[in-house]
TrEMBL record:
Pfam families assigned: LRR_1, LRR_14, LRR_8, LRRNT_2
Database matches in Gene3D superfamilies: Ribonuclease Inhibitor (3.80.10.10)
Signal peptide: 1-21
Keyword terms of this UniProt record: ATP-binding, Glycoprotein, Kinase, Leucine-rich repeat, Membrane, Nucleotide-binding, Receptor, Repeat, Serine/threonine-protein kinase, Signal, Transferase, Transmembrane, Transmembrane helix
UniProt protein name: non-specific serine/threonine protein kinase
Alphabetized InterPro entries for the sequence: Leu-rich_rpt, Leu-rich_rpt_typical-subtyp, LRR_dom_sf, LRR_N_plant-typ, LRR_R13L4/SHOC2-like, Plant_RL_S/T_kinase
Organism name: Datura stramonium
Limits of the Disease resistance R13L4/SHOC-2-like LRR domain: 159-328
Signal found in the keyword field: yes
Highest taxon of the lineage: Eukaryota
Amino acid sequence: MGSVHLSYLLLFLTAVSVVLAVSSPDGSSDSHWLLRIKSKLVDPYGVLESWSAGTSICTWNGVACSDDKSHIVSLNLSASGLEGPISPEFAHLTSLRVIDLSDNFLNGTIPPALGELHNLEELLLFSNLLTGEIPLEIGRLRKLQVLRIGANMLTGQVVPQIGNLSELRVLAVAYCQFSGKIPNEIGNLKQLINLDLQQNSLSGPIPEAIGGCKNLQNFAASNNKIGGKIPFSIGQLESLEILNLANNSFSGSIPVELSHLSNLKYLNLFGNELEGEIPFELNQLVRLETVDLSNNNLSGTISLLNTQLVNLQTLSLSGNFLTGSIPSNFCLRDSSLSLIILADNKLSGNFPLELLNCTSIRQLDLSSNSFGGMLPRGLDRLESLTDLLLNNNSFTGIIPPEIGNLTNLEDLYLFHNMITGGIPVEIGKLQRLRELYLYENQLSGSIPRELTNCSSLTRVDFFGNQFSGSIPDAIGRLKNLVILQLRQNELSGPIPSSLGYCRKLQKLALADNKLSGSLPPTFRFLSELDLITLYNNSLEGPLPESLSLLKNLSKVNFSHNKFSGSISPLAGSNSLTALDLTNNSFSGPIPSELALSKNLTRLRLANNFFTGELPSEFGQLEDLRFLDISFNNLTGDLAPSLAGLKNLGHFLLSSNEFSGEIPTWLGGIEGLGELDLSFNNFTGTVPAELGNFPKLLKLSLSYNRLSGVIPPELGNLTSLNVLNLQRNNLSGPIPSTLQKCQKLYELRLSENNLTGSIPYEIGSLSELQVILDLSKNHLSGEIPSSLGNLVKLERLNLSFNQLQGKVPPSLGRLSSLHRLNLSYNHLQGQIPSTFSGFPLSSFMGNNHNLCGSPLLSCSELKGHERIWQLSKASVVGITVAIVFTATVICMVLLYIMLRIWCNWRKVTISCSETSGFESKSREGENWVYGEEIKSGQYWNKTSPVSSKEKQISKGTCMFHLSVSSSDSTEKPLV
């Protein structure tokens, strides 16, 4: 009995000695070092609570001991939420074979002291926050089989010392920031099975030495900057099953040697610069399941055949320059090919009927090629099809009704083709259909009601077709609809009220149609609506008040309709970023509540009937970049608070009734690119502060009542394209500083009171193209010859000024000019011959001093001047002769009359003795004759006259009319 007790005692002492050997606090036991390591870690989840000096180390969480309990051989604390550095004191745990600290929040560097762990076989530090470089001492871990340190922030190079790890099977350094070349020493790793270098910044070529990794099965180096040619030595890796070199800079051709990789299942060369043809020899890789050669520069025809690659499931050749069509022997009837992506090539011909043999296809993408012809009616043979992408081709004909038999179809992309006809009603059988894109075709007819049976639809896009009729009343059955795009068709009638029951709708585009009626009140249910565009329709009536409930609205465009009333219902969304209500009949004040939409960047309210002032609260819209309220009836001054619009790029207020002075605070909006205050009642001067806009492209202040001079500071607007100051009361000279506006292509200063000469510097504005209009001012001096440098100018108007001198011959170089007006000045001399094609009105009003076509030639003008000079001399001579002759005649007549008077006196005396009858008869004759030469009162008598008197009257009337033109308006006798 005593011996039994003794044996138990010995066993107990042995156990205690083992425990003491492992956990004694003498500074040399594993427990001591683990507790020191614990002290440097943050343990938010209490994973290390069991680590206590009073317990056996072999019971501690994550710790595994050797069989004799004398040392720890494995430490697994992965995904424990630990924070802090990796302690160098791990070096004292010399028996460790496995360290797994992956998926934590460890920081700092990988301690070089880990190189002392000569028994270490697995080191897993991936998915932490480690920084720094790989320590060179890592090469001393001769027994290491697994090194996984990826998904950290490690930098530097993949050190050559890794080539010393002759037992290494797994090297995973992906998702870090490593740079430099892949070391040649990688070829020393004869036992390597998995090499994962992807998602770094490695460069240079893959070393030919890679061929030494005879056991390599997985080689992934995608998403780096590796270049050069793919080394032929990769063809020696006969065990290779996965080769992923995607998204690098490989060039040259695909090595034929890859056909030696008889075990290869996955080949991904996506996103490189490979060129040439696809080697036909790759068809020998009968175990291939996935091939992705997309986004390269490959050319030639498709040479990969499913008839030989019998295990092929995925083939992606998109984004190349492949030509021809699908080979006739491409597909096996019993193949397992499920995904074919041939998009973005130059493939042509009709729809490849060979593909209909691949009945296992689930995804078929032939988009962005040059396929044409009609879609085959046998498409329903692809009964497993879930995704059919035929967009961006030249397919014609109709959508075959058999498409309704593809009951597994989820995505149908037929957009940007030339498909005609209507949507077959059979489409209503596609209960799994989620996305239907038919936009930019020539489809017509009505949208079938059967479409609303596709209850899984989330996206419908029919943009740019010729659909007519109304939107189906049952559209509200599409409860999962997120996007409805029906823009640019010929749809008419009202918006169905059931649309409000598509409660998941986020984007609604019904613009560019012929819709009428008012907005249905059911729109209040579209609480997730983000975008709504209804522009270019005939919708009318006031906006429903319930629109204020749509708090997620960010983009709204109701422009070019007939809406009326207030816009207050649209002022309720705090998410609003763009609102366009241009060309409607909205009235009343602009609601200040719009300022609550702090994210508003674009606000267009032009061409309405808004009244009142521009709300001062708009100054709170710090992100507003585009404000257009032109063509309304707004009044008042611009409030100082609007100076808060610091990011405004377009400020358009034209055609209103704003008054007061143009505020100087506008100069503080440095990013302004367009300022249009034209057609208002602004007074005062043009503020010099308007010269503070380095990005301003257009400045229009025309048709106001501005006075004073044009500030020379406008010359600081070096980006300006358009300057329009016409129809004001501006005075003074044109500032020569405008020469600094070298990007001007339109300059209008007409209808002002500008004086002085045209600055010579204007001729340096070489980009001036649209117009130079300085008409209707008081400009004087000569036309500067420098204007001949404006060779791009299309219209030049200098009319109605006081310009003088000759038209500079240099203007003849203006070959782009198609409108010219130099009229009503004081110009003279020869018109350049190149102006002969302009009308006479271009030069009239210059006091006959201009010559040349279309006016008189200069030689004819001189001839006329000589004739005019001779005529004046002749007139003087003739005048003198007439006066002299008239004097002589008068003297002769006076002499004759005196002689007659003397004779008459003699006859009177001699006739005093004749009978009374004769005397009476002569008196009668004298009476009649005397009346004849009177002023015409006689012919106004209305009393009857004898026939004799009529004869006399008739004769004397004719005489009288010929003598006295003043009586030509008398009434004739009746």
